[in-house]
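Backbone shape codes:
===
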Amino acid sequence: MAKVQRFAGALEADPFAILTAVQIGCPEFAARCADNKVMLALMIRLEEFNRDAGEAVADLDPALVLAEFGDAFQRLEQELRRRARLSDPAVPYFP
């Protein structure tokens, strides 16, 4: 992780996005997150959640977790679609 952090620092990239890009087999993901640091933001919230919930995290139902993450990502996608419509309705964000 230290090497990835140094590499990301040199590129001003998101180290967690680099690692995630490898995991999901999509190198473009790291580039997409370089400026907005999406994965770093997610990891900050995850760290806060872990700190606050502690041992209770083990009691979470995986189906609930998937549903909640799905809802959150769907809201983010809706925001992207809204912004695309506002900026240029002739060019859709999502083909």
